[in-house]
Amino acid sequence: xxxxxxxxxxxxxxxxxxxxxxxxxxxxxxxxxxxxxxxxxxxxxxxxxxxxxxxxxxxxxxxxxxxxxxxxxxxxxxxxxxxxxxxxxxxxxxxxxxxxxxxxxxxxxxxxxxxxxxxxxxxxxxxxxxxxxxxxxxxxxxxxxxxxxxxxxxxxxxxxxxxxxxxxxxxxxxxxxxxxxxxxxxxxxxxxxxxxxxxxxxxxxxxxxxxxxxxxxxxxxxxxxxxxxxxxxxxxxxxxxxxxxxxxxxxxxxxxxxxxxxxxxxxxxxxxxxxxxxxxxxxxxxxxxxxxxxxxxxxxxxxxxxxxxxxxxxxxxxxxxxxxx
Length: 325
What we know:
Blueprint: E1 4-5, H1 8-14, E2 25-27, E3 37-38, E4 44-52, H2 59-73, E5 77-87, H3 93-109, E6 113-121, E7 129-138, E8 154-158, H4 163-172, H5 174-177, H6 183-190, H7 199-205, E9 209-214, H8 219-231, E10 234-238, H9 246-254, E11 268-272, H10 275-284, E12 289-296, E13 301-304, E14 310-312
Parallel strand pairs: 5-6, 10-13
Antiparallel strand pairs: 1-6, 2-3, 4-7, 5-7, 8-11, 8-12, 9-11, 10-12, 13-14
């Protein structure tokens, strides 16, 4: 494609064609429209932003998922997303259009609006780069902060760790990985696309949580590090209480990755003193969850393995996925 803005004809066909599906969207993308307008009434507006740099062929879809998950971690209902898409000159129109299709598919799945953004071909990028801004709303007394974890809170994890990392690696290295994965494991990974969102558990957990954090880059270790740093508290995590799927175990072992440092969108970390009520309601919704530890007063993070050995998590880890992609 030629360097510069994406031609209006492409945007007209693949972006400006969308209908406004939500009553709280007052102004959506169009030719010459550089802003969107959202009616949040008396609620609090919540805004977040994330780049997608290591998602390969699923980057468009995941660019929507990650910002919706950030909003859910604050207790907010996602409303819409704005996406900046930078394409390298050697990319094709079809690659760009596929990213738009994936973004729109995710918006439809999560009942949110593509509010706009920016797109161009730029020589400063070597592969597609997507930066998404998510917009949501929450009632004043439902807003959740990462910094509010309390001593004695139980630490709950939803679903299983490594969902996103395993899904990305499978889609990038499919032929190689299929040589040792069982048909059941392949089916499980392919279904992970339906498990990458934590919006449902976020909207349930906001009634019980002192803090929430979606488990993204840096995996479980990254998420608990940020929760503890934000709240000025510490934590104990017990490896024996963590659930990993066989596909996550196999792919992590094949690439020699630590699954606790692997990007894990699809899993929410929740701290709460109402763990029984929360677990009961999540399971009623069909969402697996389990207690893996507790928040402590001393500002240190202990990871206790199955042999009782303690590892201190004293820095934000580099995500394991960068060893492969």
